[in-house]
Amino acid sequence: MRxxxxxxxxxxxxxxxxxQQDETGPAEVRWDKESCARCVMSVxxxxxxxxxxxxxxxxKTKVYKFDDIGCAVIWLDKQIWKxxxxxxxxxxxxxxxxxxxxxxxxxxxxxxxxxxxxLGAQSDAVEGGxxxxxxxxxxxxxxxxxxxxxxxxxxxxxx
Length: 159
Fold this sequence. Notes:
Elements: H1 2-19, E1 50-54, E2 62-66, H2 69-77, E3 88-92, E4 99-101, E5 106-108, E6 120-122, H3 132-147
Antiparallel strand pairs: 1-2, 1-3, 3-4, 5-6
């Protein structure tokens, strides 16, 4: 009976430990197998992807993945918990694919990105670069002038 109790206790511990997800930081991406939470395109470009971790304060945080920082910014703005203390925004550094804090990243314009917002994030400051607030304004300007002019959200912007 003791052995059965020990096995049950160990099994319960292992199941609990394995089922817990990190409550902070970016999550692993299954490239080409996951879809953008906003536009439903495949998350495949390792240079321009983004993630948002957050959710209502009465629940465990959840990770949402995006094919472009533009999709993440616009999607997050519609969430009531967007400014909550548990809300994190991550973006890949376009130079090396490492995940960095999107709110402290520097952004350069003129990049060819999956959804044509044209922003590349990097971990260190760059002359003429944009901070997160300026990058967000840039995203909304592109959304209003380019995407709306062409009849909505663009999906094949590499051409």
